[in-house]
Write a structure and sequence with these properties.
This protein has 20 helices and 32 strands. With about 650 residues, the chain is α/β, with parallel strands linked by helices. The protein has a domain of about 130 residues: GMP Synthetase, Chain A, domain 3, CATH 3.30.300.30. β5 and β6 form a beta hairpin. α2 crosses α4 and α3 crosses α4. The model has no long low-confidence stretch (mean pLDDT about 95). GO terms for molecular function: acetoacetate-CoA ligase activity; ATP binding. It comes from Crenobacter caeni. Its EC number is 6.2.1.16.
């Protein structure tokens, strides 16, 4: 790591941040000097009964807060936050229904629409009336096989307003993938988009939606949302379906009503990737989700009312839920549906410039692809209002950090963030008052008592280990759906270390107070007994233009383990001896001799989940002749055949 930060906030910018104002508030409440972020973070984890009410007050959360901030023993599964409080997530997102823009929606076709906060409120009102008429009650599940469009957000908010539970899959899911998820949660209504456009192709969704609906006996109705096609025509192809207009036609817009529910009342059901078995149905509550997102949006991402957030996401990724919650901070959402590389990668950046985007969110994989495409946004658009670039989904390499500052914008808080579906939020985030160091997440999230430990559960500093959390936090799952006695919940997070939440990331705390994620701990390599994070290998390939993407696995070999690297090459490139030598030399010089793969194999494709994450464990299973637990969780399961019985791996 370099000794010079890539970016340091100007004093006036740091002083004007939400985080600076919040620190002053907590300083007054606690009587402690809190001279720096570390001292504020320490208070936030040591004094949660002071900290979380301060977040509630500062962020303006709407609700009835009665009783203590925490109750229980202090152990993870025995602690409850704000046990006497009642609130409603949708009420907070729909506050101040005025003429300000709530959502800008752009499709790959170039069609753009906007919706004001008043317009969104009116649509939610009509939807909630129609849903009541359809028999939706508190606790019912409402599913979405939907595009990232304004009507989807309205359907989610109408669901939440009634105390019902929203759950969604993106439109790139197959029928089996949707049924594996929705079939566990038994939704009463299914919303689906009529069609989408991706990569220049129109993709009709009615046939898949009809088959999904036929396999969900709990459904009472299907509602088709207008997107890139004809909702009326699509609805006619689905038994029991209505287009949105017909569903809400009998009801006039009025002020929405909101059912205030307990803090832990279910709000969302999210799903694990399902690559190691049936997807886990992870239930998140109204209060924990909202409070955590308000904290992250305002204190860590420094979002202010009037800001504009674009997060490229589908409705099957938790970042869609995170995006939607920004409405509670008075932020305008930029929702995009289509390929991020439309117009040779220019579409999103041109739109960001035109719309005055202040916060641009994406994945590390997208930034890798953008860099490989040769497009430098700073050469085309000044992006004058852009203050924060957010990246998540996989580790962002130090080289890619440097690329962002060279080719997107110099005066920018590049915030690599990490958390996940399990917590519908982040353990480590950006910080508007701290420097950015290449390859590092800036800080632990406030209220998140994270640590890095060795195999015995002992803290380690500036060394690699397991990322854990030592104390409860509000956005812990309420539980897993249909999990008697919380058996699956306990096994998922608490079976590795007694009394600690084990998140499954292989990480390292840095001397700057930041964090480096080295990959998933279940994919860690172990040649000769030395643990290696796969991200350590991947980041060495950043400068090798012939390699588009790669997967590294550990292959059992003669009583030990050897590193095998699979690479997908750019069109026209060949994995000849000179390229193999360059790859090995780069890994040896940039990482260590231990990281150098024993075998490098070129393949035409790499398996990935429906959310776009490469699946190391599935490849490892195929190489060892073992079954892949849930092939339906993969976007391209046919790619697995490329790794079966490879002669290169028998020598």
């Amino acid at each position: 790591m370099t000794d010079t930060p890539l970016w340091t906030p100007r004093a006036e910018r740091a002083d004007a941040s939400h985080l600076a104002a919040f620190t002053r508030l907590v300083r007054a409440k606690s009587g402690q000097p809190l001279p720096d972020y570390v001292s504020l973070w320490r208070l936030s984890v040591d004094a949660p009964a002071l900290f979380w009410p301060a977040v509630w007050d500062y962020t303006g959360l709407i609700g009835d807060r009665r009783g203590p901030a925490l109750a229980g023993s202090g152990r993870f599964l025995e602690t409850r936050f704000f046990p006497g409080a009642t609130l409603n997530y949708a009420e907070n997102l729909l506050a101040a229904p005025d003429g300000r823009l709530a959502i800008r929606f752009l499709q790959e076709t170039g069609d753009e629409t906007t919706l004001t906060r008043a317009g969104l409120s009116a649509l939610v009102s009509r939807l909630q009336q129609a849903m009541r008429e359809a028999g939706v009650k508190t606790g019912d599940r409402i599913a979405g096989f939907v595009a990232n469009q304004p009507e989807t957000i309205a359907a989610m908010l109408a669901t939440a307003s009634l105390g019902a539970v929203w759950t969604s899959c993106s439109t790139d899911f197959g029928v089996d993938g949707c049924v594996e998820r929705f079939g566990q949660t038994a939704p009463k209504l299914l919303f689906c988009s009529d069609s989408v456009v991706y990569g220049g192709k129109r993709i009709e969704l009615a046939a898949r939606a009809a088959e999904i609906a036929a396999r969900l006996p709990s459904l009472a109705r299907v509602i088709v949302l207008p997107c890139a096609g004809d909702a009326t025509e699509a609805a006619a192809r689905i038994e029991g379906a209505l287009p949105l207009d017909a569903f809400i036609a009998p009801f006039a817009a009025a002020a929405p009503t909101f059912t205030r529910v307990p803090f832990d009342h279910p709000l969302f059901i999210l799903y694990s990737s399902g690559t190691t078995g049936a997807p886990k149905c992870i239930v998140h509550g109204h209060g924990g989700t909202l409070l955590q997102h308000l904290k992250e949006h305002q204190l860590h991402a420094d979002m202010h009312a009037g800001d504009t957030l674009l997060y490229y996401s589908t409705c099957g990724w938790m970042m869609w839920n995170w995006l939607a919650s920004a409405l509670a901070s008075g932020v305008t959402l930029m929702c995009y549906e289509g390929s991020p590389f439309a117009e040779d990668g220019r579409r999103l950046w041109r739109w960001a410039e035109q719309a005055g985007c202040t916060h641009f969110g994406t994945s590390a994989r997208y930034l890798d692809a953008l860099a490989q495409s040769g497009l430098a946004p700073c050469e085309h658009w000044p992006l004058a209002r852009l203050r924060v670039l957010l990246s998540t989904g996989s580790p962002l390499s130090a080289e890619r950090f440097q690329w962002v500052y060279r080719h997107i914008k110099r005066e920018l808080n590049l915030a690599s963030i990490s958390g996940g579906t399990d917590i519908v939020s982040c353990f480590a985030l950006g910080n508007p008052t701290l420097p950015v160091w290449a390859g590092e997440l800036q800080c632990a999230g406030l209220g998140m008592a994270i640590d890095v430990v060795d195999d015995a559960g002992h803290s380690v500093s500036e060394a690699k280990g397991e990322l854990v959390c030592r104390r409860p936090f509000p956005s812990m799952p309420v539980g897993f759906w249909n999990d008697p006695g919380q058996a699956r919940y306990r096994k998922a997070y608490f079976s590795r270390f007694a009394g600690l939440w084990a998140h499954g990331d292989y990480a390292e705390q840095t001397r700057h107070g930041g964090l480096v994620i080295h990959g998933r701990s279940d994919a860690v390599l172990n040649p000769g007994g030395v643990r290696i994070g796969t991200a350590e290998i991947y980041r060495q390939l950043e400068g090798i233009s012939e390699v588009l993407e790669s997967i590294a696995i550990g292959q059992k070999w003669h009583g030990d383990e050897r590193v095998v690297l699979f690479v997908r090459l750019r069109a026209g490139a060949k994995l000849d001896d000179p390229l193999v030598h360059r790859i090995r030399t780069q890994i040896r010089d940039g990482a260590s001799p231990r990281h150098v793969p024993a075998r490098i194999v070129a393949v035409d494709d790499l398996p990935r989940t429906l959310s776009g994450k490469l699946v190391e464990l599935a490849v490892r299973n195929v190489v060892h002749g073992e079954a892949v637990a849930n092939v339906g969780a993969l976007a391209n399961p046919e790619a697995l055949a490329l790794f079966r019985d490879l002669p290169e791996l028998s020598i």
